[in-house]
Design goal:
Layout lengths: L3 E8 L8 E9 L6 E8 L9 H4 L3 H4 L5 H12 L3 E4 L2 H14 L3 E3 L4 E2 H5 L3 H7 L10 H15 L10 E3 L37 H13 L7 H14 L6 H16 L7 H13 L24 E5 L3 E2 L2 E2 L2 H10 L3 E2 L10 E4 L7 H9 L3 E3 H7 L3
Parallel strand pairs: 1-4, 4-6, 8-11, 8-12, 12-13
Antiparallel strand pairs: 1-2, 2-3, 5-7, 9-10
Helix pairs in contact: 8-9, 10-11
Amino acid sequence: MPDFVVVDVETTGLGRLDRVVEIAAVVLDGSTLEVIDEFDTLVNPMRDVGATGIHGITASMVEAAPTFQDLAISLGNVLENRVLVAHNISFDKRFVTDEFKRIEVSFDPGFGICTLALTREKLSQACLRRGIEISQAHRALADARATAELLKMVFSEADEFRPMSLSGLSGEWNTMTLRRDVFPESVQLPVMRKARSLRFPTSDGTLMAYLDILDSYLDDLVLTDFERKNLNELAEELGIDRSKIPDLHWAYLQSVIHSANRDGRISEFEHDVMIRIAKALDLPFEDVPVVSEVNATPSSLEGLRVCFTGEPVINGQVVSRSSLESIAANAGLQPVTSVTKKSCDLLVAADKSSMSGKAKKAMDFGIPVMSVAEFLESIGK
């Protein structure tokens, strides 16, 4: 049994001309699936680093990093004769193959294992469902480690694989790497990308690879002409019939609708997101569900029995439940510990979109739900 190597790359963008800015590889023993080695480094792309808000990497962080050519021999030794594993394998395989091609190295990615195809979910959602923690999402090493743990749970579903091989590697051995950890948090910019809790509407790995990139492009709910061009090129590269793209986009929108409706209601925000996605994909709006009726907030809170859920952050500080209960009591309200039909008049949640047990009960019982910010404003705090 060959060893496996989980690879994750962060890139300047998603198009064919984009470059790798960080790469990580986690090597797993072929018999036990235990981690036996790791490789992790920032990469100087010799161009702009691209969307820092997605990967958190700045130009100054890669200035002293090795180029892909610098690290090619070290990386090649990590990959050689091992089976490639990735979450959306076509994405990582394409970028690694293109980087080797630029330095005239022949890279055969073999036939690897795609955990996206096995789970049909974005990495964050697949890990959440299985209790796997991603400490710092959209960092190559953190994502690779999480994918390695995911592989252990779904490996039995992988039925075919073949190791990678390389030829044409030459030059001096260069062991230089530059890990992101050497930079203080103040230098690294926060990652802004937020993945939707989406289960892809197909079991076809090729179609999922396309939908995964589409989902990334729709982070801002807009498709630019450049992004549309890249998607068309990706579809051609993956061998997807262009006549099937509208149906694929429609299936994607239906998955977003299903995800939004998982709590039995559609908020104004969710409705707006779905309308904007439909517009971006040139799809009709008729089947986008309307905003659900919400439980009306009482005009006066005086004397109400109020329950709190979640830990809100106000002005950068976590506000404890006991503090909120004291504020409520001083405002003439009666704090209660649970949501029941007879003993609670109002639920105050850290996030109105909460799917906590208390929030679900409140919706079922017709009890109004307010955010903490709305609550504090209502009582003049």
